[in-house]
Amino acid sequence: MTEKGVFQVDKKVIGVDIGGTNLRFGIVKRSGLILHRLIRPTMAQLGRETVIKNIIDGIEELIAVSNIKKKSILGIGLGTPGFIDSKGIITFSPNLPGWQNVDLKKIIRSRIKIPVIIENDANAAAFGERWLGAGRSSQNLLCITLGTGIGGGIILNNKIWHGDKGMAGEIGHITVNPDGLLCNCGNYGCLEAYSSATGMINRIKDLAERGRETSLLPKIKSGIELNAREIFLEAKIGDLLALEVIEDAGKYLGIAISGFANLLNIKTVIIYGGLASGLGLFANKMKEEIRKRVIPSFSGDVRVLKAKLKDDAGMIGAAGVVLHSKGLLRFK
Q1: What is the phi/psi pair of residue 268, to 5°?
Q2: Are 129 and 321 in contact (CB under 8 A)?
């Protein structure tokens, strides 16, 4: 191995997962081992400039506390929600207010002075799960991020499938109910309007305000912000409306998964994100739809798995994308 090759192998990479709620930062070795990590609030509600500042501050803090020199960092991988074109521009992000035509890669590189690769957050999570998680044995897989919004990352023949303009995998914006609810993207009946945290919160608030009974009504009327965790907790102790909203989320998720399975003949589906921990409450409805809708000769092969890397999938995957781009990570 050349001296340059040794130098590259010894270098580290930084992975950043930009979530609607939290920013996750990690310094990652070639093996996937996380040497140092930070978690900071995104503060998306305060606008684009605040989020960008938080990203830059988080990267600089990570480098400082890790005591690793910048010259030993091969690159920074950014996993970010939204639609990213083939040039790396965030054209639109429904769950990050004010994010339209943002060249985040250029902004971060100009401030940090380290090469940057940007990837959709769901693609990054899918890559992480293929590398070190639940998809290690799968050359083809679909990874669905269930959180504030819904994203999808597709791995085909061990590579991220980006599509013609870099925007493939947006399963959250597949229409699952043609006459359905308004989505943040402007369309009606998207999966995200039913099965994301935002979608479930909006649904239960709307149904409660229309007269449906729920133990969450006092909090809804008070104007205090509701979160998806509370809906899951109430469902577990017998709130019928909360359970209905969650089971509907599973139903529509199953419809969307079935379409992907029939189209691409993918048998491995990985669920990742803040709502993955609640899979047990909506799994039956989801699996029922998959059994009904996937081509019979194939339906038994479709397996839906929880992400093994949990909250680290996007951050590890973003780091892995950098290693892969440098030829330092290859799948068998």
Answers
A1: -110, 120
A2: no
